[in-house]
Amino acid sequence: MSTDPMKLPDPPMPYYTLTIYNLDLFEKSKFKDYDSLLESRLASCQARANHLASILENGNAISANGTLVRPQGEHESKGAREKVPVTTSTHFIGQYVASFTIGTEQVKSYLVIDTGSDLVWWQCGPCYKNGCYKQKNNPLYVSTNSKTYRKLDCLVESRNCEITNKVYECSPYGNTCIYDYKYVGGPRTRGWIAHDVVTFVLDQKQVSIVFGCGKDQMHGEPFSAQFSGIAGMGRRVMGGGNSLPSQFEADIISMCLPGALSTKGSTLSFHKTPFKKTTSATLLQDFRFPSFYFVNLYEVFINDREVPMFQSLSRNFGNYTTRGSSIVDTGTFITRFPQDFYTVFSYTFRLQVRGIPMIDVPPGSVHDTCYKVNTTGPDPHFPVVKLYFGSQNPNNLLLLTQQRVMQYINGVFCLAFLPWDQTVALIGSNQLQGIGLTFDTAANTLSFDVDACN
């Protein structure tokens, strides 16, 4: 059974706090069982990896005039060569949705949160002819019904129309800032940039934000009808930027990612955190990719066996080079390592497994390390994975156990890590679910409060 999103509790939230849900909660009824749902998520995760690989390889380069050039997705990168199964729906942009209250009519809208982008957009009626898909869970926002809506004048507010070159353009007709964003894989949104308010219903406080008024989302692969748009949660840019952290001028973002089977919402907060900041990684900034959250993965252990680092995980950040460069991305489901590192990682893991038979993986499976366990016996105990950030210090240790290490699918347990062709690691939501996350771009830390919100 699927949960009706219209009946989900939307508790009043304090200023700068939103409710977030796992998108799987809305879509369970589309699948015959949890295994088929998980297979779809794995396929979507591959598409997400393709999307990020294209960005890493083709752009977010800084042009000569200092503006940011974001790739439009027309070119396939080497990291995007893996095909996405045709059965997947196009949800690779993210796996979590936040509940927003928009405009003077306070339209409740679910927007996917995406820590890898800086554009906030939602479907915006009146749409172009046949331009908007039918939303399943909430009514269409109609700009003419909101008294606080207004188009952005790109001559007066040029900063908000120049942040991402090739995405935004100032039209000579009416000084309208138009945008056209095509995601790798085919989905596309077109419209113009505008202003409206978001209301935090506990105290009825409002914040005006800049957003993409999406007039046409039908000239490309379809978006999911389960959400109205996408909220870019990319790293805050001082003095500008259109991501939510930039617009809210928030150095601190805290969130807890609900698990796939969770029927409860969690919270996404700006400016403050309820979580402990005992275990932290250093946030690194790559100005070629200003939206991404890079961290300094230093060492990886399986039980007490160290996995040696490779040159593939070293990255130049301008005036210094660090090993173990990793991107934390909530839109990615499975954590990925560069191919050479993953080969040794998975081999070391297999050596550490005791008393559980490894099985041959069926052809076409994304996994390569799976085990058959007697379901009537005691719970299996697989090796733990230790991620150290910056140094081998207990205060920098993220300890991953059981469901954050293994996935149970089609009756077997499989290692919940995958390889890819990039020179950075990609830390995904399967490893982060149930952990209180605090992104602090003023202190340049990402903190982990394990099991703070299970």
From TrEMBL:
**Where is the catalytic site?**
D114, D329
Q: Give all residue intervals belonging to the Peptidase A1 domain.
A: 96-449
GO biological process entries: proteolysis
Pfam families, A to Z:
TAXi_C, TAXi_N
- Extract one GO molecular function annotation from the record: aspartic-type endopeptidase activity
Q: Which domain of life is it from?
A: Eukaryota
InterPro entries hit by this protein:
Aspartic_peptidase_A1 (IPR001461), PEPTIDASE_A1 (IPR033121), Peptidase_aspartic_dom_sf (IPR021109), TAXi_C (IPR032799), TAXi_N (IPR032861)
Task: Enumerate the PANTHER family for this protein.
Answer: ASPARTYL PROTEASES, PEPTIDASE A1 DOMAIN-CONTAINING PROTEIN
What is stated as this protein's family in its record? Belongs to the peptidase A1 family.
Protein name per the record: Peptidase A1 domain-containing protein
What is the species of this protein?
Capsicum baccatum
Recite the lineage of the species: Eukaryota, Viridiplantae, Streptophyta, Embryophyta, Tracheophyta
